[in-house]
Design goal:
By secondary structure, the protein is α/β, with parallel strands linked by helices. The protein is 44% helix and 13% strand. It contains four helices and six strands. It has helices at residues 2-27, 32-55, 64-129, 213-220; strands at 182-189, 203-211, 233-234, 251-253, 263-268, 273-281. The protein has a six-stranded mixed sheet, covered by helices on one side. Helix 3 (64-129) crosses helix 4 (213-220).
């Protein structure tokens, strides 16, 4: 559209240029030159007055074609400024939206890592200060009996004030789809501790299904928005197996993006969800 306006402006300017050439040719002709020059001199004051009025918005009587060219140039300038303003505004808006989304993903990924990191620290304290083994630990908590009955072994329970003293937390709104944390002892993570494919090498993991793709990508990039990649897709058995004091073996989490990392994210084909995984203790 702007190209068409520029074409109109160029044609109008060319017409004005040819008109001026013809006008000067008449003035310099052998017969009509002096008469026209005399007439032009006498009319000069009146034309100058009319021209001054046209500058402040009145009709340009001296040269109607010049008036048309001025209007075209003014209109073209207005449209160019409007197009430039729209382009800049749209660019800023898109950039701001992308930045805001990235910052939101960073915050979410930090929130995902906070709770399991606290649990991992509590496990270290329990195994050192109370001389407990990983098999002695219990993830029993109020609202669920999947990990045992809360309060049965208070000094060995991660979420009991007498044990690990970590308050159990449901995932906050927006962190995932509402699925609860899974504390798992049936999977091993490649290059984390030993990897032999049996119960002796299964790691103690915290899994959170239902996280967003954006958060999953941000976690795997380590918070670097310039290194975002598609999370690996894995088909695993035993993701929902709760740890109740005995390690078993169901599968190995293995992918170049996740191997040897304390935390990462993948798409589970079995659960049909993106899953955040955090190593609480490696074996």
């Amino acid at each position: 559209m702007i190209g068409e306006w520029l074409g109109v402006c160029a044609r109008e300017t060319q017409i004005l240029h040819h008109s001026q050439i013809r006008y000067h040719a008449i003035l310099q002709g052998p017969r009509g030159g002096k008469k026209l020059m005399s007439h032009h001199t006498h009319a000069n004051h009146r034309n100058q007055s009319l021209f001054r009025k046209s500058v402040v918005g009145e009709t340009l009587i001296k040269n109607p074609r010049s008036s048309g060219n001025v209007l075209v140039l003014i209109l073209l300038a207005i449209l160019l400024f409007a197009a430039l303003g729209y382009a800049v505004s749209n660019s800023i808006q898109n950039s701001g939206s992308g930045t805001a989304e990235s910052e939101k993903s960073k915050v979410t990924s930090a929130d995902l890592q906070q709770f399991p990191s606290i649990i991992a620290q509590a496990i270290t304290r329990l195994t050192i200060s109370k001389n407990l083994t990983l098999e002695d630990l219990s993830f029993a908590h109020d609202g669920s009996v999947a990990y045992g009955t809360f309060g049965t072994q208070p000094t060995q329970e991660v979420f009991n004030p007498q044990g690990g003293a970590v308050p159990y937390q449901l995932p906050s709104a927006g962190l995932n789809d509402g699925s609860e944390w899974i504390f798992n002892g049936a999977l091993e993570l490649e290059d984390m501790g030993t990897t032999v494919g049996d119960a002796t090498s299964s790691d103690l993991l915290a899994l959170l299904p239902g996280v967003s793709l954006a958060s999953c990508r941000m976690i795997n990039s380590g918070g670097n928005i310039n290194a975002l990649t598609t999370p690996p897709s894995l088909t695993l058995a035993g993701e929902n197996t709760p740890f109740t004091g005995s390690f078993t073996y169901a599968d190995t989490i293995s992918d170049a993006v996740l191997n040897g990392r304390t935390s990462g994210c993948y798409f589970s084909t079995a659960l049909n969800k993106y899953v955040y995984v955090h190593v609480l203790a490696s074996r």
